[in-house]
Specification:
Elements (H helix, E strand, L loop, with lengths): L3 H7 L3 H12 L5 E2 H5 L3 H12 L3 E4 L2 E4 L2 H9 L12 E2 L2 E2 L6 H15 L8 H9 L5 H10 L3 E3 L6 E3 L3
Antiparallel strand pairs: 1-3, 2-3, 4-5, 6-7
């Protein structure tokens, strides 16, 4: 199942979002796949990206939406019950970066899981933008994510990725 960040990033392009809206608007019958492909190579790339994110699939020559992908992605990435890390977030934003390392590692794991998809590459600007959605000091949080091994960074700082175990 795709990561929520992969789903959101798949819909971040206005042309892909328009294609997805067209498929959703067509209802359960979807739209003819040949109609989508008639839009050229770019339309085919958009279709592939939406399909890779699990948002659409082809059935009997038609492109149909897969609405259950949202619930499945959220269910797989839901925080565990009674997690002390939950107390550090208010309305989805981190209120303070904990001093205790064990708790800070829990926060870093939570933020990595919520904001970054494994296998994706991010620029520093994209990392900062994502972090700003939940914390006001992106540079310090980004530094902790790299230093504690949650994100890897190219030596020139051009590309960030979720670290693999």
């Amino acid at each position: 199942m795709p990561h929520p960040a992969q789903i959101v990033s798949s819909l971040a392009d206005s042309d892909r979002l328009a294609l997805y809206a067209r498929v959703v608007g067509a209802g359960a019958e979807g739209v003819p796949a040949d109609d989508v492909r008639a839009g050229g190579a770019r339309a085919v790339r958009h279709l592939r990206r939406l399909a890779d994110a699990g948002l659409v699939r082809e059935e009997d020559g038609r492109v149909v939406c897969v609405p259950e992908v949202f619930a499945a992605a959220l269910g797989e990435n839901a925080p565990s019950a009674h997690d002390p890390v939950d107390a550090l977030f208010h309305e989805g934003r981190l209120t303070d970066l904990p001093v205790r390392r064990a708790l800070r590692l829990g926060v870093l794991a939570r933020i990595t899981g919520r904001l970054f998809a494994p296998g994706m590459e991010y620029t520093e600007k994209q990392v900062n933008t994502a972090i700003r959605t939940c914390f006001d000091d992106p540079s310090s949080l980004r530094r902790y994510l790299v230093e504690e091994g949650y994100l890897t960074r190219e030596s020139d700082g051009s590309v960030y990725r979720v670290a693999t175990a």
